[in-house]
Every structure is written in C-alpha cells, then in structure tokens.
Amino acid sequence: KLLTDRGYSFTTAAEREIVRDMKEKLAYVALDAEVDLQHVANRSADIERVYQLPDGNEIIIDKERFQCGELYFNPSLIGLESQGVHQSMAASILSCDVDIRSRLFSNVVLSGGSTLLPGFPERIQKELALLAPRGSDVR
Length: 139
Description:
The protein is mainly alpha-helical. It contains 7 helices and 2 strands; from the N terminus they run H-H-H-E-E-H-H-H-H. The chain has helices at 2-5, 13-26, 33-42, 64-70, 85-94, 101-105, 120-131, and strands at 49-52, 58-61. Helix 5 (85-94) packs across helix 7 (120-131).
C-alpha cells in the first residue's frame, strides 16, 4: 500500500518478494515517527534510499522506510481499526494475574520477522513503558 501510494505497483508473487527484500534491506522502526516525518518534509535527514530492481530500474523511497514499521504501532495509517502491537501486548499482560505482571513486563522476548527491523526493540520498549503500571521495569 505504501509503495502503491507512491505510484509503484507490486502484485505478483515475485514482485512481493522484491518488496520483502526492500523491507529487509531498507526499512526501520523510528523511535518517534513524527520526528522522522519532519526530517523527510524538511529534507534535513538522510532518510532517502535507492533500491535497484532486478531489471536495473531504481526506486527511491524515503518515508516508506519507517512507515512500514510504524504500521505495527499505528495500524490506522492504512485504515485498519485495530490497536498497535504494543497495545495488544500491554493488554495481554494486564489481563494476567497482578502478581506476575511486573515479571511479564520485564521479560518481553521479540523473535523473528519484523521484530528484526532496526529500532523495533527500542520502540516496543518505549511504548510498553508508557502503558505499563508506574514503576514497572520494561525490558
């Protein structure tokens, strides 16, 4: 969707593999997406990257680099009416027995997939700390 909004179309299975590769090589999760969006608007940060397609053509992406990761925290960006992954995690922990919540907040494990995006662990820690009970050690 993000690349479609920019005028690129990737519909076949092979093209989706290209998008996956692009995501793995160029995407990241911003600690504060609004700050990075301002950098894009002001051209004050080196966010723009060029990705070379197998046919030799090049695609230029900038805000899409962090917007794809931002969708995990703010699904409404693409019109989804669901909560972010951090909110789901916090709700799951808070639905557990009060005696183990602190241990759960301090023992969050991220594994595989998009959690490997640069910045994902720091962002999830930041967001969970805002949702956790006061004094919780979020790790």
